[in-house]
Amino acid sequence: MGRRHFMGLAAAALTLATGPGRATEAVEGALGMYGLIGKLVSLPGRRDELMQLLIEGSDQMPGCLSYIVAADATDPNAIWVTEAWDSEASHKASLSLPQVREAITKGKPLIAGFGERFVTAPRGGHGLGAAVH
Length: 133
Prior knowledge:
Blueprint lengths: L2 H16 L6 H4 L5 E9 L4 H10 L7 E8 L6 E8 L2 H7 L3 H10 L3 E10 L13
Antiparallel strand pairs: 1-3, 1-4, 2-3
């Protein structure tokens, strides 16, 4: 499974949790970058399987600048996904790729629910290139 699977699954999961179009123009601003931080909750005992599904495909998503999957330190079923995209449009476009749709199908049965979701405006940092001021 490629990065498209991974990115699409988590992005779709976060979109399903809160609905599309939650970002505002101010988020992208002059920088154009778009970020998401979201929490997924796996079925009991299935977190590692869901995380592996997400991680397996994290290297081929057009427009994705950074994608990090992390286990919650206090909840044995929670996963945090932190994403940075070159634009909100790239993020949205990833949801229509055939391989992303397939990843959503595989991942959905492992997801028990969703937690917080935050839209951000990345400015730079390791993995994003030079910081933009």
